[in-house]
């Protein structure tokens, strides 16, 4: 009697484990709703295609503030890229380090929603479990940081390289252009 009970319990545990493994193996569909919790406008989806689909070309996505470029392209686009290719290396540079770190946190959240395993994570670097390379999958830095140079990345994203403070005077504009676009 006890032997039969143990066998039934064992069979039930095996069945539960199998069902759980099957559920985990079913890929989460990477839609904005499943990752971000809300939809994106078609124009934002077009920006992602523009920035990530055709490789090997420098692209500039320029637009007014508050249109969702950071959420759509930098966060969701980067998460989609890593969902598709776990070996991709992305550097995200902003004018302010706390902003870069914040963007990285949102990307981590998005990757977890997609069920992607992270092996190493600190405030500036993210390594996926499947990464076999020498560079982290994402490195967060500032535009004028020394750590920006010498990185061997597939994608470099300069998110809001010019902020309103940089536009106040001719000298500040020239300094921003020199440190952002010439120094690198």
CATH architecture: 3-Layer(aba) Sandwich
Largest sheet: 5 strands, mixed
Number of strands: 5
The CATH H-level homologous superfamily: P-loop containing nucleotide triphosphate hydrolases
Architecture overview:
The protein is built from six helices and five strands. With about 180 residues, the protein is an alpha/beta fold. The protein has a single domain (about 30-180), classed as 3-Layer(aba) Sandwich (Rossmann fold). A five-stranded mixed sheet has the order 2-3-4-1-5, covered by helices on one side. It is globular.
Summarize the structure.
Helix content is about 45%, strand content about 10%.
Structural descriptors:
alpha/beta; 12% strand; single chain; 6 helices; 5 strands; Rossmann fold
Q: How is the secondary structure organized here?
A:
Blueprint: H1 2-25, H2 32-35, H3 42-52, H4 69-84, E1 90-94, H5 97-113, E2 118-121, E3 125-128, E4 138-142, E5 155-158, H6 170-182
Helix pairs in contact: 3-4, 4-5
